């Protein structure tokens, strides 16, 4: 919160020890550098925090799921049958690309046991707590939450089903997301408690399945999409990652074979009773791997790389998927 009185500029942080305090002060001092003004940094009172929370919730009561059946946010659960297919890398890059297209984007790292999204996006900052409300860090224009932000470095998580449900529920309910155009959820690989919980908590969500060209991986990936169908989500499509390696002479080396993505799409089309398309094929890329290691998504660092171009094309297809408004309460005031 900022208060201005004459030459006095007061910035009130939400809490003492706010993790963003240093960067906020630096940004404000830079903005004031050409002015004859005095900056004071302080902390909100409890009454001021309560008023802020009420304003952020638009007057709504706490502990309400903003992504229930009335939401106007387009929600996508991005899953895979197994680990190691690049699911988190693709999810992080899709989120950043959607933000680059000027959409308001949130990203939930629901891979509780194998969280990697903070590293993928280069996030070191911790979420900010205002009593029971959590303000998520923002990276590359994307609001992000992950269990990794609450743990000591590389500390393992060993939780049973009820704890997993409570964690993903908190990510949706206690985090202040604001108005979002898209919410992407990086699912844990395979099937299990988290998939069931999110099926209940996100009734309007659609599933996107990540696989590789390898037919053995495709057979497992089918199960990921099938679970979504069982919990009420439709399948938007299939993304085939690591489709080929571009050679110096322009030829393609199909290291993992061919046809995995189209095979999964065909099987899910039969299960769903409707057409499930292949949204795109992403070639292998050194820049994609390096960007993941460095926290620099390829769509931002190397937007003309073939892998980045493929991800951009997939993001455009996602934006063309329209949310049905039947039965929705539109937020329109006269």
From TrEMBL:
Entries under CDD domains matching the protein: Mrp_NBP35
Gene Ontology terms for molecular function: 4 iron, 4 sulfur cluster binding; ATP binding; ATP-dependent FeS chaperone activity; metal ion binding
Annotated keywords: ATP-binding, Iron, Iron-sulfur, Metal-binding, Nucleotide-binding
InterPro entries from the UniProt entry: Mrp-like_CS, Mrp/NBP35_ATP-bd, NUBPL-like, P-loop_NTPase, YlxH/NBP35
Pfam families registered for this protein in UniProt: ParA (PF10609)
UniProt keyword annotation of Metal-binding present: yes
Coiled coil: none
Biological processes per GO annotation: iron-sulfur cluster assembly
UniProt xrefs under Gene3D superfamilies: P-loop containing nucleotide triphosphate hydrolases (3.40.50.300)
PANTHER family, per database record: IRON-SULFUR PROTEIN NUBPL (PTHR42961)
HAMAP family the record matches: Mrp_NBP35 (MF_02040)
Protein's recorded name: Unannotated protein
Organism: freshwater metagenome
